[in-house]
Amino acid sequence: MELTDSPPTTYHLPPTNIGFTIVELLVTVVVIGIIAALTIVAYNDVQKDAANVVLKSDLENASAQLTSDNIKNGSYPASVELANYGKGLSQSAGTVFGYYPTTTSYCLSATSKQSGNSVFHISSTKGVIKDGLCPPPGFIAVPGSATYGTSDFYVMKYEAKQVGATTVPISQAAGLPWVSISQTTAIANSPNVVGCTGCHLITEAEWMTIAQNVLSVASNWNGGVVGTSYIFSGHNDNAPANALAVTTPADGYSDTGNVSPSNQKRTLTLTNGEVIWDLAGNVNEWTSGTVTTGQPGVAGNAYTAWIQWPNVTTPGTLSPSVFPSGTGISGASSWTSANGIGQLLSNPADTVLRGFFHGGAWDHGVAAGVLMLRLSDAPGLSNTFIGFRVSR
Q1: Which fold has domain 135-392?
Q2: Is the pLDDT of residue 111 over 50?
Q3: Left if phi > 0, otherwise alpha if psi is -120 to 50, otherwise beta: which for 87?
Q4: Which residues 6+ apart lie within 8 Å of 40 measured at CB?
Q5: Is residue 10 packed enough to be buried (19+ CB in 10 Å), middle (13-18) or exposed (0-12)?
Q6: Closest to 298 measured CA to CA, from 264, 229, 345
Q7: Cβ(113)–Cβ(94) under 8 Å?
Q8: What 3-state DSSP class applies to 31?
Q9: Which residue ranges make up each domain of the chain?
Q10: Between the CA atoms of 147, 192, 250 and 342, what dihedral angle is there, to the nearest 10 degrees?
Q11: 339: Cβ–Cβ under 8 A, 6 or more apart, which residues?
């Protein structure tokens, strides 16, 4: 058998792909972007943490220097430059101090140039480092409320006072409340508080936050139990027949002519131990709230009579809730002026722009209280019975 040569068999291999598809490239770019973003975020967090450590260290050192100055001189220095025996406060290159002294106290804030979101402060009264800027002089801290959607904030300890003819509100014991001021003017002047960035006329949510807080503190109630007997409602008995200053800050009945037990106590204590003056009584206080329709009340009552809160038949549409029940405190829905919370003056049929004021004046009697609300007046009204309070 003769063998013949056969042509060699030819094999064709599939073409080799040596590049990436568009989809693969896009996925790669996205992954690289995510990794880069996570790296930047992590780096920024590390940088911020480092800045925070520096700020807190600077505050601790500066606080020790200020204490030393006070021991040596009998008072705190008037400026950063005069502190530390005239050498100035020690600080890192990236730290910016804000110093607010009196002869008997101080507050010192520290901000980082590297991390603008890092701000802490320490004061001679608290002695511990806290987040945020120093409170303005005469302000107290208020815990925020989930009920009213507020975070922690600061508010004037006393009703706003005016020294001379300035437009600068001041929180201090001395002097009579700043009255004969409209809501419009109070809003315009509230940012003028010295040393206060972001100051504003107290809002409805902030007022209700404070009211909820003090209502929940047993020591604010004459019976020593929340809801028992009455909560103190301040100077409202028209004796004396005028607004009062505070001549004795250590006495909650200062200048009223009353002593314990009496509903005329002018101070209320918050859950954090801070004390606020004249939240009820003395003078009415504007908030920034306004309403045109949707007032709560009783149909047909066109600002003709004060209403007990449980007697309201038209709930209205105000937000946040101004009702005692809105505080969420057990039993609050049944509270009346006999419990010292105050009453409501409103007109559910009104469609004219009205401003809110709370608290009650020196002659309001049982109508005054931390939940007293009057909705009968336009934002441009001003008289000797209405003042205001600033918050930040």
Answers
A1: paralog of FGE (formylglycine-generating enzyme) (3.90.1580)
A2: yes
A3: alpha
A4: none
A5: exposed
A6: 345
A7: yes
A8: helix
A9: 25-131, 135-392
A10: -40
A11: 227, 229, 230, 231
How many whole angstroms separate alpha carbon 13 and alpha carbon 8? 16
171-215 per-position pLDDT tens digit: 999 999 999 999 999 999 999 998 788 999 999 999 999 999 999
What tokens does 340 get?
A: 């010292």
Residue 339, token pair as written in the block? 């419990």
127-138 burial by CB neighbour count: b if 16+ within 10 A, else e? Answer: eebbeebbbbbb
Closest CA to 132 of 63, 55, 203: 55
Q: Could you tell me the two tokens for 160?
A: 């706003």
Q: What is the pLDDT of residues 222-268, one digit of tens each?
A: 999 999 999 999 999 999 999 999 999 999 999 999 999 999 999 99
Q: Where residue 105 falls among pLDDT bands split at 50, 70, 90?
A: confident
Closest CA to 121 of 112, 130, 113: 130
Q: Are 292 and 207 in contact (CB under 8 A)?
A: no
